[in-house]
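Question: I have long wanted to understand how a fold can be written as tokens. Here is the record:
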Amino acid sequence: MEEREKEKGKGNERWGAAIANLSEMSTNLESLQKLLIKKAVYVDEETFAKASLSSEQARTIKVLEQRVETLERELDNAITAAAHARKEKRQAEAAQKAAEIRAQEVTRELENTTKVFELHMEELRAKQEEISKRDNDIKLLEAIIQTLGGKDAHSRTG
């Protein structure tokens, strides 16, 4: 941001200087016109052709200077845009890296949860087997008790 503000400041200084130059040139031109009107000078064709050539060259120089100023502004804008793009690229890379790290963390957490789940499932199967075994033992004991209880009832009645 500071770079951009400095560049804007430089651009404003250039504009201010350019406007001051134009104002000064306008004043000079008005003075020259007044002087020429008061003291018109008639020259031969060769001198006039040289003066016209000089005037044309001055106009061409002015156009080229304006083009240079335009190109300087475009260059400043391009430099600013490139700096902004580099900053955005760095931010995007950092965000991508953070997302990758988060994805790795989530994957690790999921793997750990899966392992814990598998251990719990093994415990539940073992408990289920134990319950089934005890259930079978209870049924066996009930059968033994009924068998013994039936014999006791036959021995008492018999």
